[in-house]
Structures are given as C-alpha cells and as structure tokens.
Amino acid sequence: xxxxxxxxxxxxxxxxxxxxxxxxxxxxxxxxxxxxxxxxxxxxxxxxxxxxxxxxxxxxxxxxxxxxxxxxxxxxxxxxxxxxxxxxxxxxxxxxxxxxxxxxxxxxxxxxxxxxxxxxxxxxxxxxxxxxxxxxxxxxxxxxxxxxxxxxxxxxxxxxxxxxxxxxxxxxxxxxxxxxxxxxxxxxxxxxxxxxxxxxxxxxxxxxxxxxxxxxxxxxxxxxxxxxxxxxxxxxxxxxxxxxxxxxxxxxxxxxxxxxxxxxxxxxxxxxxxxxxxxxxxxxxxxxxxxxxxxxxxxxxxxxxxxxxxxxxxxxxxxxxxxxxxxxxxxxxxxxxxxxxxxxxxxxxxxxxxxxxxxxxxxxxxxxxxxxxxxxxxxxxxxxxxxxxxxxxxxxxxxxxxxxxxxxxxxxxxxxxxxxxxxxxxxxxxxxxxxxxxxxxxxxxxxxxxxxxxxxxxxxxxxxxxxxxxxxxxxxxxxxxxxxxxxxxxxxxxxxxxxxxxxxxxxxxxxx
Length: 512
What we know:
The protein is α/β, with parallel strands linked by helices. It has helices spanning 30-33, 37-47, 83-93, 114-118, 138-148, 154-162, 218-221, 231-242, 261-273, 292-300, 315-320, 327-339, 358-374, 403-419, 429-439, 446-454, 459-468, 473-478, 498-509; strands at 5-7, 21-26, 53-58, 71-77, 108-112, 129-131, 167-168, 176-177, 191-193, 201-205, 207-208, 227-228, 247-251, 279-282, 305-311, 344-351, 379-386, 423-426, 492-493.
C-alpha cells in the first residue's frame, strides 16, 4: 500500500545526535490510526520536542525506522476494552514479554486512553505505567523523565514517574489524580492521509466532556467538566484546515453545547453559499440541538443522514438515565431534519438499562411507529447496544442484566421493528458481557486476560480462560455492588467524587 501523508505542521527531522527513540503505537490498522484525533495529536506534541525521535507504528506496520533494541519508550493508545488483544499481538511481534515483571530491559511500556484512565487494574501487570486523564501535557513530562534518566535502573525511573501527578505506576501504588486539561487551544488533525478511514478529513475537537451526565455514560463523567474551544480558535482552525482539504468533521461528546455552536454552523454555511466546496460531518447531535440552521448546514455540506441518541423509548426510563427528552422534542427534531434537507435519521438506544421493563421496550416500538407514520419516505433506522456498567458513573454499582434476557429483548426489538419496515441493529450481547467483565474487573483478571489472548481472543476464548483460572466473571458483569464496596478504581481521584455518584445513583434510580 502506497502511503500518502500531508503534515499540517513542521515535523521535526530525525535528530542524529539523540540516542532516545520511542514508538507511539495504535492498536489497529494504519487507516484507523489516521482517523484517531487523540492518537495523532499525542504524536504531534511529542514530535515537537527536541532530542526525541518518535515513530508511529500500527498493527499492520511492516517496516520500522528503529529496531526494538533501539527503542527506549513504547506507548499505546488504549480506547476500547478489547484493545489488549491487539496490544499483546504487537508486543509479541517485537519479541517483548507481555508482563512488565518479565521485561528487565527497555523499552518501558505505557498506555493512556479512556479504558485505562477509568480502570487500569485488569491491565496493571502488563504496563510499566499509565497516563491517567488528558495526556497532552503529561506525556511530554513522562518522555522527558525517561529520556533524562535513560541508563538508570528501571525501578529508579518508575519511582520518578510515580511522583508526577496523573501518572500511575503499579509498582508504586498510590492515589492518582486524573488530569483535566483546559481546552484553550484547538485540537485538530495534524496529519492528513488519503489512506485514512476518513480519507483526508480534518477533524476538529469543538468541545470535551458533556454536562448532561447520563447515568451510564463514561465519556460524560470521565471528561467533566465540559470544556469548549474558544470560538476564535475554532474559526481560525477551520480556515486552516480548509486550506488543505475540503473535508472537515466537528468532534465532541456534546458539541451542540458549545455556546457558539450555531455561529460556527452559520460560518460554514455562509462559506458554502459563497461556492466553497465543503464536506462537513458531526460526531452526533442531541435531539434538542436539532434546529433548521444546523440541519441546513449539514445538508449543504453533503451530509444525508445523522444520528440522534434517544437512549430509551419511554420518558420514564429517559428520566432514570438523566436523558430528559420528551416525545414532542423527538418528533420535532425528525420534522426539522426532514424539512431542511436530510434524507434520514438513525436513532441510537440502549437495552438493559437499570429499571427497564417490557413496557419501556414496547415504548420504543410505539415511538418508531409514530415516527414512521408521520415521516413517509424518510429513512428511519435504529441501533442499540446493551447496558455495560462503567467506572466513575452513577451506574457503576448496577449489575448487568443476564445474557439470555438481553438476547430475548434484542430479538423482540428486531422482530417488531422489522414488522413496520425499520432496520434495526443490536450489538453483540455476548461481547457486551465480556466488555462489562473487563470494565469492572480487577488485577485478578491478569492471567485470564493472557489466556484469552493465547486462545485467539474469540468469544469462546474468554469463556475457556475464565474456566481455566476459575474466574467468576458473572460477579463483575452481573453483581449489584454495595455503596460500601471498595471498587478496584477507587484510587483514581476523579471529580465529581464517589459521594456525588452515590447521591446521583439514588436520585436516578428513584426517578419516575
């Protein structure tokens, strides 16, 4: 495959006088790595440092600039629970033992990203240290310490790293403060590629975090408070990106909460009206943010469909999860989307939410029927995942519904929505079960994780590994935990704290 890349900054030339080489790894193929804003931005920030020679590697990297014997530091982006399977395969590709205790020599291996920020304990045996929280600044500090102390015993370097706020070194356990970066600069795609999954797309982080705080949502709670990129920075960055490509994407868990979101849309819309060829997409839209001006901008920028997260079919259950949307708002959003240029909408929901009943599922069907009836010719589809309890959320204490029950619910939704001519996709209930196990797991899962990988990483591999090591995985997935339980991730200091989450859990689960 011929790789075509366009750097939007001045990459540092290889420093021949530096003896410090590091790899920044993405646990996936090259095409996906080039559409990962966080991964590329981390690479850019380190690449801007002097005396550090950094190289990107991916699952399908064939040739590297450096041999593993020359690499002093090896960092991994860890965004999804099953990324460990790819990470292990990459470690073995370069003949590195999986467990940190078996790696006496360099490189030091670390990870950052939402999975290990939320709960690094299942993976503590495999990494020398973790970046907890926003890594833009702390990554540079970590690299500097490793560079300045290379040649010293591994334990000495790790001790120095453990003294930095936001770095968790399992060998020197202590409470760790999650780092939260002020979003005073615009984060954007620093390298464009024709080979990216989103070809030549300039991604702009408009906001980080979400103030709606759905009870199940890790992306919301892990990134509080909501931070928005200053408007002038956004506009300058949009113009900068459009100098290099006509494809832009606005990213954020709640971009419509940006105080000048509509101004940004108008700015782009006016450019299109002045005959600029711009293709623009949004990560997702909140129902109550669907307005004619936003939809007209999306349609003018070539977007035919969009996704709306309604989470649940009944207003009662939406109140339980803190998604306070009325049916009237949902119907109004569809009407605006249809009348202002979109061809269809996909509704995203979740099954197995705490307190869910059959009536709540039936409410999804009734809602779909009404939307379909009132919007003939408009493409409507539904997508669902099943509830997975996540650390640092109000629902972290809530056990997951059993697999058989959830599979019945999945079959019910598919059948009933098919009857009314609506496409429906539901994530794998069995895979979601294992995601829950990893999400709420602890360090006792270490050998289980290795065995799962060695057996091939398929669904049956998880089950066989659990049996071999006598791991009660149902406990991690299904158990309703007590507020008094000491949770594996309690040592990660996140705001708002545990007491707030307990009160929020009580408030939501008694909502009517």
